[in-house]
């Protein structure tokens, strides 16, 4: 299918709009010195799968894990997460990282300047297990993670936080992937 090419003032047809694959669901700006970020009304039955991007987030602790869990800070889901991945420093050394049933998914590592990345979540609002894939790089390493949340809860929100320290600035965007 060709990429839609819209002209200023053009009347958009349903067919043209139906060809768009990603729809912005939510944008959230991060404050100063925060220990957690709650993103509410992020997931719904409109989309089965989502892409989450985050950019220009500065951390107070370089290299701390950047963690994700369903729910909000007031009501986090802290069980049934599993993930694994590969970590590679730019020296060529590759190591495995695995966690069976931690309280969250690790989706990145923080940097004191410009923690940015993208990850995908399959089925967060379905009454089925949810899956994620993430890859990112920072100034000293690159990572690839994937995981599963073994619960059939239909989630609508999520919570991101550093494993240590605080976060300042940046933006989180949630996109629904057209079914």
Q: Report the total helices.
A: 1
State the CATH architecture: Sandwich
Could you say how many structural domains there are in total?
Answer: 1
Strand % is: over 45%
User: Are there runs of 5+ residues with pLDDT below 50, and where?
Assistant: none
Overall shape: it is globular
pLDDT average, as an integer?
A: 87
Classification by helices and strands: mainly beta
CATH class: Mainly Beta
Total beta strand runs: 13
Cα end-to-end separation: 15 Å
CATH-defined topology: Jelly Rolls
The SSE string, one letter per element, is HEEEEEEEEEEEEE
Question: Radius of gyration from the CA trace?
Answer: 17 Å
Profile the largest sheet. Answer: 9 strands, antiparallel
Helix content: under 10%
Write out key terms for the chains shown.
179 residues, mainly beta, Jelly Rolls, nine-stranded antiparallel sheet
Description:
It is globular, with a radius of gyration of 17 Å. It has one domain (25-177): Jelly Rolls. The protein is 3% helix and 49% strand. The chain has 179 residues and is mainly β. The chain starts with 13 loop residues before the first helix and ends with a strand. The protein is built from one helix and 13 strands. The protein has one helix at 14-18; strands at 22-29, 37-39, 49-59, 65-70, 81-89, 94-100, 105-109, 115-122, 130-137, 141-149, 158-162, 167-168, 171-177. The mean pLDDT is 87.
């Amino acid at each position: 299918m060709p990429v839609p090419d819209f002209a200023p003032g053009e009347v958009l047809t349903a067919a043209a709009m139906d060809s768009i694959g990603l729809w912005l669901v939510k944008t959230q700006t991060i404050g100063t010195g925060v220990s957690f970020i709650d993103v509410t009304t992020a997931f719904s039955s409109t989309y089965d799968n989502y892409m989450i991007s985050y950019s220009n987030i500065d951390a107070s602790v370089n290299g701390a894990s950047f963690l994700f869990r369903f729910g909000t800070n007031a009501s986090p889901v802290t069980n049934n997460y599993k993930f694994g991945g590969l970590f590679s420093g730019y020296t060529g050394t590759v190591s495995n990282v695995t966690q069976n049933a931690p309280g969250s998914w690790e989706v990145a590592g923080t940097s004191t300047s410009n923690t940015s990345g993208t990850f995908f979540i399959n089925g967060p609002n379905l009454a089925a297990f949810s899956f994620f894939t993430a890859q990112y790089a920072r100034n000293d390493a690159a990572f690839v993670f994937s995981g599963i949340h073994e619960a059939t809860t239909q989630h609508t929100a999520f919570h991101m936080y550093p494993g240590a320290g605080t976060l300042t600035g940046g933006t989180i965007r949630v996109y629904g992937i057209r079914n």
